[in-house]
Amino acid sequence: MTEGEEGIYRENRLPSRLLAKLRSGLLRMLPQVIAVAAAFLVGAVVLVATGYSPLDAYATMLTGAFGDVYGIGQTLTQATPIIFTALAFLFSMKSGLFNIGAEGQLIIGGFAAALVGISFDGLPALIHVPLALLAGALAGGAWGFIPAVLKAKLGAHEVITTMMLSYVATYLTSYMVNYPFKAPGWVAQTVPLAPSAQLPRILPPTQLSASFIVALILVALTYFILQKTTFGYEVRASGLNPLAAENGGINVKRTMIIALFVSGAMAGLGGSGEVMGVHGRFIDGFSPGYGWDGLAVALVGGLHPVGVVIAAVLFGALRSGGMTMTRVTHVPLDIVIILQSLVVVFVAAPMLIRYLLRWREHKG
Amino acid sequence: MNIIDIINVGLFAATLRMATPITLAALGGIFSERVGVVNIALEGMMLTSAFSGVAVSYYTGNPWLGVLAAVAAGGLLGLIHAVLTVTFKGNQIVSGTGINIFALGFTAYMSQIIWGSRGASSSVPSLKAISIPLLKDIPIVGEILGTQTPLVYVMIIVTVIAQFVLFKTPMGLRIRAVGEHPAAADTAGISVVRVKYLGVIVSGMLAGLGGAFLSLGHLSLFAWGMTGGRGFIALAAMIFGRWMPLGAFGASIMFGFADALQMRLQSLGILPPQIILMLPYILTVIALAGVVRKATPPSDYKPYDKG
After folding, report:
1. Which of B42, B97, B242 is the best residue to mutate to test the A interface, defined by the most A CB atoms within 10 Å of its own CB?
2. Count of CB atoms within 10 A of residue B306's CB?
């Protein structure tokens, strides 16, 4: 092979390989794309049935979410906590557990971060910020650890216990900011965090904060842990086939417990980011359901960290664009929750999507 | 204030009342799991039904039509869950979660369309309490059982029927066989898919009845997220009761007591409401942790592949 030939070969190869990878990635995402499309279709039926124009609703949603820099900033702001909770669900799912309590882990994490944020004064930000984030992660982790231990040691089903603890987190933090940590005034919230515990805004005047960057780092970290470390291998093996994993010398119970702790910690970090970056304090009921968004996003993202980012931006757009839509067209904001649930329902049954595809082929 | 203000006959009457929606949903859970389908959508089915019942009562002025609508709505969601998990073999937890999220969004959305408020509906005609002659005159028992919302009695009757159907009839045998050993059931000539559909739809209808109790029996309106996790507590009651209707009823009485006590304590205002509200959820976790090791599920919940 001459030098020239080799050069041509290399030139051809690189883009084609990249294209092939892109194509296979897109193909892998096809069921999810169809699920989203189907959800919007059914959502349109709901809108028409209740007297709204789906075109108007979806168009204002789209322009609200992506129409200008401000819209994009708000979309990414909304996507940020969803990335955290989606990673949390993804991680638990990989280990074979259903952590449906990310909502509560996010809330309790946010509160712990707020506690650290208001308790110290005069710390350098370089110490205060990581300390608050750590507190949030630990609190969220604890909220995942309890159901994990109950599952591993006693067999209590994590779907019920994580859900129950979610309610406990909601009421516990609500009590905290209505009584011992209530700031003066009518609103159930803490006093503002010390400036040294606040995450900087990275795209003013939008609320997008450095929490978004933390989220992206966590995405890379999650990918790395799951794919490149022994622990990640153990998590995936336990999830795929716990019996085989156990026979292969993996301590499945221990892996499950750590995985659910990590999962809760991820959601807790997300809550910390909201408190430290967006609100600057803990406000009762600050999460409009980011935990559930995360579940949907993890599924739509095909349980892949990169897919999660794409899907989180979509769901962030639903939330931020949804607010514009409600303002302009007066469609109740809850249509966003309906759309989200429909996506989950369609993703739940990949065979249904395949069936629908085949049906289209037969017709066409 | 003394203990008599908290623990009295009224509390036990309230216990029976609050055990009603949990029992009905737990029965729903039993029928679904007995045919081998996990149904964590009980929560969403109850919520959708609670809403549907109120909406129909609002438009027709007849709460009993509302109850029918609630049962139908629950059955419809059961059908959807069955289509997704039995026919298309989708993940049961994911499908159930999807239905739960749908219920939260759909009821809030429709509540705004109909009543202009996301938080609560207007007050609608609801079921009137009835008194059972003779029974109501017995001391203590009469005070607890004698005068209740009709659905409390319906719950007791349905529990007994469910226990009988599951363990004393050929249909019950078929249901249990399909959950325990679908291949054997298939060989014996039972239509596995049809029985699974039946079980999951009945499951939705029972949860729907529980939802109707909340909005038309206990209250006379729909409020956002008014089920408050009772669908999940019902799952715990089902496990606690070893997937048997009478057992689930017993467990539901315990959870109903926690709920009734919580309400009583709240009305007395001795503790912050948030602390009291946590009690039923913490109790559920403790109960679940304490008992499940000894509980064997009636199925491995795998989708059935013929051949």
Report:
1. B97
2. 8
- Dist. CA A349–CA B135, nearest whole Å: 51
The predicted structure's pLDDT at residue A2 = 45
Judged by CB atoms within 8 Å, which residues 109-128 of B form the interface with A? 109-110, 112-113, 118
Assess contact for B87 and B37: CB atoms under 8 A.
no
Handedness of CA B102, B108, B110, B113 (dihedral sign): negative
Domain boundaries, chain B: 3-292
User: Which of A339, A318, A269, A305 is CA-nearest to residue A86?
Assistant: A305
Task: Provide the ipTM.
Answer: 0.92
Instruction: Identify the burial level of A68 via C-beta atoms within 10 angstroms of its C-beta, where 0-12 means exposed, 13-18 middle and 19 or more buried.
Output: exposed
Count A/B contacts: CB-CB distance under 8 Å.
154
Statement: residue B95 has pLDDT above 70: yes
pLDDT of A14 > 70? The answer is: no
Residue in B118, B149, B130, B129 with CA at minimum distance from that of residue B51: B118
**From CA B62, how far away is CA B127, in angstroms rounded?**
9
- Looking at residue A187, the DSSP 8-state letter turns out to be S
What b/e string do you get for A174-207 counting C-beta neighbours within 10 Å, with b at 16 or more? bbbbeeebbbeeeebbbbebbebbbbebebeebb
Instruction: Check if CATH label 2.115.10 holds for domain B3-292.
Output: no
Query: In whole angstroms, what is the distance from residue A248 CA to residue A204 CA?
Result: 52
Q: Could you report the per-residue pLDDT of B163-194, keeping only the tens digit for each?
A: 999 999 999 999 999 999 999 999 999 999 99
